[in-house]
Amino acid sequence: MLIAVILALAAGTYGFRVAGVLLRDRLDLPEWARHLLPVGAATLLAALAATAALTEAGGFAGYARPAGVLIGLVLAWRRAPFVLVVVAAAATTAVLRLLGVD
Amino acid sequence: MRTAYRTGDARVLRDVAAIGAAMLAVGASFGAVAVAAGLPAWATLAMSAVVYAGGAQFMAVGLVVAGSPLAAVLAGLLLNARHLPFGLALGGALGSRRWQRLLGSHLMTDEATAFALARPAGPGRRRAFWLAGVLLFLAWNTGTALGVLAGGAAGDPAALGLDAAFPAGLAALLLPSLRDRETRRVALTGAGLAVLATPLLPAGLPVLLALAALALPLLARRRPPAAPPRTADEAADDRSVRAGEVSC
Fold first, then answer.
1. Is A40 on the interface with B (CB under 8 A)?
2. Which InterPro entries match (chain A) (predicted)?
3. Is residue A5 part of a domain?
4. ipTM
5. Is A89 contained in some domain?
6. pLDDT per residue as tens digits for the range B8-61
7. Considering the domain boundaries, does residue A6 fall inside one?
8. Minimal CB count within 10 Å: which of A34, B84, B131, B151?
9. Among partner residues B60, B77, B161, which is closest to A90 by beta-carbon distance?
10. Could you report the per-residue pLDDT of B76-115, keeping only the tens digit for each?
11. Where are the domains of chain B?
């Protein structure tokens, strides 16, 4: 049973991944649709970042995580190096949790 | 030109390493959690190698242990459906040969997609995708193996604040593309929709719902077929109406 779950999940996930890539070759998209594809991808990534920053299991994720992400965002906005953005976000959240804020 | 490419690649490598370190730790947590939940070591390792989608893996382990294997598959696939539009947007960024498309597809993650799309289309984007794809795959699977071995000693990624590292990294990779006004409006509207829908819809759907924000540029593109030539005032009114839509 377990192996069936893993194989079904693997096949389905790979199916989604490869379908988009191969469809792109076959579809003859008009210019406006081609222009919307990166906008759509940016929208999905923004939605992932926002939901991952703010929510956990359908509810509010607590204050420590969004606070860390906010620090990271401000640094990214000021064009800080990417590594600093990631480390500062994690460190802020970790320190807040250490202080008992969650 | 060649040097510019190389420095760009070195930067991508360094940036990917930061996210890779976080993925190593979260992968270790997955390995430890799965084994602690009663999954055999081989199944845990196999899952990271062949499914290779963190969110769906954590969810599947929880649902399998709870005795709902069918729900584990369906919920995991709903969560991963976003990869289809990612593949559409990446397209040729994986390479022109067939094996590159087939193998690269398996390495597609949110982060690899974000690293690739953060660079202009061309060879630089292709190298960013493969660099991020291969390194993050290795980090996730090495992490899983370490977690399986270490068990409870793997530590808690939440104590390290790693749950803040991923959204911050994604947002940092996205910022340059948000300088484009249309992309910014659609992406922020979609993100807002997804957050609002998260308490209401099963995991995976809120993020897909964000794509509804693409209606903004689609509707804006529609012009009445026999409209008289518009004055500058009318065009300004139209813009303010559309700005109003976004802000609410």
1. yes
2. Brnchd-chn_aa_trnsp_AzlD
3. yes
4. 0.95
5. no
6. 889 999 999 999 999 999 999 999 999 999 999 999 999 999 999 999 999 999
7. yes
8. B151
9. B161
10. 999 999 999 999 999 889 999 999 999 999 999 999 999 9
11. 2-178, 180-223+234-248
